[in-house]
Design a protein that fits this description.
The protein is mostly helical and about 240 residues long. The protein has helices at about 10-45, 60-65, 70-90, 105-115, 135-150, 150-160, 170-185, 205-215, 225-240, and strands spanning about 190-195, 200. Strand 1 and strand 2 (about 200) form a beta hairpin. About 15% of the residues are buried.
């Protein structure tokens, strides 16, 4: 007779936890793999400069992603995550040095399998930028938070990070520099007259030119942009002087 005590059977709740753990881990790896595949395709589309603003190009892909309730900033995270893993695989120091094969080729399929293989053991947090460097994650989160809050400077800088033009450290410094300049900026002149020509000057006449140019390209704006502009325009119209209505 063995002197060792029999190992007690796990309780029903522990069994449920382990089963759910396996389910979550499998689903998480599948989700990360899918996100990396999306990032890979967005990277390829971004390299097709001629298609950048055309139907089927990079901008169209971002709009399609937003239509499935995935914020554009999340798409940039997926691009960064895929780029980081590919840089590591190809042994290149910068995202601009990445070589991407043509889609639907054996080389493309091989690269995709490599990305999926690297999802083993990855956590959702790793998906932020494809790196375990917490300092970089914090910097990226800071940028994305400001982008989602409507900071257009943060949005523009975030795009440059995704394109490999700026590192996260450079991006944070650039955004900080912009905010510093904004704090020291004097109050703008909205409307004035040129003492020599008598022509209006300041932000208002420039704004009218911008509005005219926007309306000339109205059909090129997507539905979400037009909806936002409509709401703003109605508010402007409600404040127009009677002689301008």
């Amino acid at each position: 007779m063995s002197s060792k005590l029999a190992k007690p059977a796990p309780s029903p709740i522990i069994i449920e936890i382990t089963e759910l753990c396996e389910e979550v881990a499998t689903g998480m790896r599948r989700s990360i793999a899918g996100a990396l595949k999306i990032g890979l395709r967005l990277m390829w589309l971004h390299n097709q400069v001629a298609l950048m603003d055309q139907p089927g190009g990079f901008r169209s892909a971002l709009v399609a992603i937003e239509g499935h309730d995935v914020p554009r900033s999340t798409a940039y995270r997926w691009i960064n995550a895929a780029a980081a893993l590919i840089m590591k695989h190809q042994g290149v120091p910068d995202a601009t040095d990445i070589t991407l094969p043509e889609p639907c080729t054996p080389a493309w399929d091989k690269l995709e399998k490599i990305l999926v293989e690297q999802t083993k053991g990855m956590s959702i947090r790793r998906l932020l930028i494809g790196s375990a460097n917490k300092g970089e994650e914090d910097r990226l989160d800071n940028l994305i938070t400001q982008d989602e809050a409507g900071d257009k400077n943060a949005t523009a800088i975030l795009e440059q990070v995704a394109e490999g033009k700026l590192t996260l450290v450079q991006a944070i410094r650039a955004l900080g520099g912009m905010k510093s300049k904004e704090k020291t900026r004097t109050d703008p002149v909205y409307l004035d007259l040129d003492g020599r020509t008598g022509q209006p000057t300041g932000l208002f006449p420039k704004c009218l030119v911008t509005i005219a140019n926007t309306f000339n390209r109205w059909d090129e704006l997507d539905e979400a942009a037009r909806k936002s502009v409509k709401a703003s325009w109605k508010e402007v119209v409600s404040k127009l002087p009677k002689e301008l209505r």
